[in-house]
Every structure is written in C-alpha cells, then in structure tokens.
Amino acid sequence: MKLLNETLEYIEGLDREAQEKAKKRLDSRMKPVESLGKLEKIAVQVAGITGRVFNSAERRCHIVASADNGIVEEGVSSCPVEYTRIVSEAMLNKIAAIGILCRSIGADFKLVDIGIKNSIPREYPNLYNKNIARGTKNFVHGAAMSTEECVAAVEAGIEMIRDLKEDYDVFSNGEMGIANTTTSSAVLYGITGAPLDDIVGRGGGLSDEGLMKKKRVIKETVEGNNLLKGDPMEILKHVGGLDIACMVGMYLGAARYRKPMLIDGFISGVAALAAYKINPHTREYMIATHRSEEPGVKVILEELQLEAMLNMDMRLGEGTGAVLAYPIVTGALEVIKNMKKVDEVYDLFG
Ligand SMILES: O=C(O)c1ccc[n+]([C@@H]2O[C@H](COP(=O)([O-])O)[C@@H](O)[C@H]2O)c1
Ligand SMILES: Cc1cc2nc[nH]c2cc1C
C-alpha cells in the first residue's frame, strides 16, 4: 500500500508553462495556425508531461500484463483458458501479433505474468515474474481478488514504470487474458452504470447464449454487491482482473514519473478509466490510440473525454492499436522540433 499511497501523493498536473511555450513555438512555424490538428495537441501534451518543449519518442516500451480470470468458469468466453499462457509465450517469441508489430515499429516488448494460471515454463529476458495469484476467483461467488492482491497488482504496474523510466521516452500497454472482456466490461459497468448493451460485446467471438450469460453475471454481480458508481478500487477488486489492476498501476506510474502512456483498445481503456477515477490527473498523461471494435470503447472515450486517432477495425487487444500509434507520436515531436518560422523559410527561399 505504501507505493500506491506515495504514488498518488506525488502525481501532479501538467507543466502549463512548457505547454504555453510549445503552443507558441507551433504557432510561429510556417503553417496555418493549428493546421496540424492532433499532431500539435500531442506535441503540446508531451511538453506538459516532461516540462520540455523538445521531446523524443524513439525509446518506446510496450508492456503486456497477462492474467487469468475465475469468471471463465461461467462460460463467458469462447476461448480455452490455456490460451492466456500459450499466447503470452507466442508474444515473448515474437510470433504473436504484438511481438511482430513491436519489432516492425521499433518498440521494446516486455511481458508481466501478474496472474497466469499455468506458469510460463521457460525463461525469457523480457518476462517479468510478478504473479500474485494463479488467476482470480470467480466473481459470481465473491470478490475476484482480496484487497491485498488488488493493491499488489496495481503496485506491480507502478513498479514497471518506476524501474524502466530512465530507459524509455514513451510507454504503451496491453493485456492477455481469457475472459478479459467480461472483467473489463464489469468494471466499466460498475464505474459508469451505462446501459449494458452499450458496454458488453462478444470479445474473442462469443455465441448469443454466451453473450446473454455474460451480461447477466455482470449485472447481477455489480448490482448485487452495490458496486454501481462506487469506489473504483472496490469495483476493481470485486469484478476486475489482475492484469487490469496492473495496467491501472502503469497509468498511475506514468503520471507519477511524468511519461506519456498510450492507451490501447477496450481493456487497456477500462484500466485507463479506472486510473482516471482514482486520480483525475492521470488522464493528462494518456494518449488514446485505437478505437477497438468492442462497443464499450465509445463509453470509455466519452468518460475520459479523449479521442482515439486510429480506427483499424481491430479487436485483438495485446496493445496492438497502441503500438501502431508510435510513429504518429514521433511525427508530432519531430514537427515541433524541426519546422521553421516564416522568416527563416523566407531567408532560405524567399
Ligand atoms: O482490448 C480490446 O479491444 C479487446 C477486444 C476483444 C478481445 N480482446 C482480447 O481477447 C481476450 C479476451 O476475450 P474474451 O472473449 O475471452 O473476453 C483478451 O486476451 C484480450 O486481449 C481485446
Ligand atoms: C488467439 C487469441 C489471441 C489473443 N491475443 C489477445 N487475446 C487473444 C485471444 C485469442 C483467442
């Protein structure tokens, strides 16, 4: 609890002076004012995060949190539970989508085992063993995690950023966990109370019957335990997952250590929203990247008042959308650094 409390205490808002300077610099370049749209917003935001007008996004770190969920017993996913471990290993071996995208875009890849049921039997230099429990409990029968487990998972996420902050300019996150769209939808329902039809989707490809069951267990558990619009940590502990809690910690850590954090699709987005509800300043450090096909993304982005920059019809998770956005962030930071003022361009070519 010490690291979490300390982190919350140290989180501050953006550096307004650096943002002003960045805005002034952009407005004085040879282009119509604000004509680079979201690129300019990113450049100004990152200036506010670091306190410097010139920044880089070359040193990129993508972190996947992997964990299993007890709620899978209820038949809310179309995928077998062992996929969590197997796909995680495929990622570590760069044969799963996220490994391939990280390599092609130039982002380092790390995977945290925060609660996989069947442990990864091989060693990898970029595997972080922070397993808190071999999966959560089935939330139909009681809280998915104890308070201690939930706090430990959040703190593990904070630690990841704390321990890697000197080596990287920008972070992104993603997850792997069968039934994660159930846990994340339940957290989103608990936080917002938005209509279930706007929140709950088919995840990895659920049947009509499975979808009805998914909505029912979420509604009954959230409402039956008086979680609707309640305390975000209580919601997380009761119906969340260890990987979602770990990503919440990454967002808190990014805000504390003043690093930009790219939000991926639905599940990473729910973690971002929970972090925002825990400390509203965290939003200022987030960059929304991809609009996942899961319906609840709309609810998340509205609550966060953020816009995603890509719509690639993806719904894989793993952080695949976030990683695709790295070149855009680099573009924004290069533009503010290298564009010339009108008189400088006149001196050259006028
Ligand atoms: O984050 C998203 O946008 C997203 C949308 C749909 C599915 N997923 C991935 O699919 C898995 C969860 O699907 P499910 O049906 O088992 O809940 C989990 O490993 C996620 O990474 C992820
Ligand atoms: C194959 C597969 C890969 C995944 N990656 C993230 N979630 C996933 C779910 C499935 C089913």
UniProtKB/TrEMBL annotation:
<dbReference type="GO" id="GO:0008939">
    <property type="term" value="F:nicotinate-nucleotide-dimethylbenzimidazole phosphoribosyltransferase activity"/>
</dbReference>
<dbReference type="InterPro" id="IPR003200">
    <property type="entry name" value="Nict_dMeBzImd_PRibTrfase"/>
</dbReference>
<feature type="active site" description="Proton acceptor">
    <location>
        <position position="318"/>
    </location>
</feature>
<dbReference type="InterPro" id="IPR023195">
    <property type="entry name" value="Nict_dMeBzImd_PRibTrfase_N"/>
</dbReference>
<comment type="function">
    <text>Catalyzes the synthesis of alpha-ribazole-5'-phosphate from nicotinate mononucleotide (NAMN) and 5,6-dimethylbenzimidazole (DMB).</text>
</comment>
<comment type="similarity">
    <text>Belongs to the CobT family.</text>
</comment>
<protein>
    <recommendedName>
        <fullName>Nicotinate-nucleotide--dimethylbenzimidazole phosphoribosyltransferase</fullName>
        <ecNumber>2.4.2.21</ecNumber>
    </recommendedName>
</protein>
<comment type="pathway">
    <text>Nucleoside biosynthesis; alpha-ribazole biosynthesis; alpha-ribazole from 5,6-dimethylbenzimidazole: step 1/2.</text>
</comment>
<keyword id="KW-0169">Cobalamin biosynthesis</keyword>
<dbReference type="Pfam" id="PF02277">
    <property type="entry name" value="DBI_PRT"/>
</dbReference>
<dbReference type="GO" id="GO:0009236">
    <property type="term" value="P:cobalamin biosynthetic process"/>
</dbReference>
<dbReference type="InterPro" id="IPR017846">
    <property type="entry name" value="Nict_dMeBzImd_PRibTrfase_bact"/>
</dbReference>
<keyword id="KW-0328">Glycosyltransferase</keyword>
<keyword id="KW-0808">Transferase</keyword>
<dbReference type="InterPro" id="IPR036087">
    <property type="entry name" value="Nict_dMeBzImd_PRibTrfase_sf"/>
</dbReference>
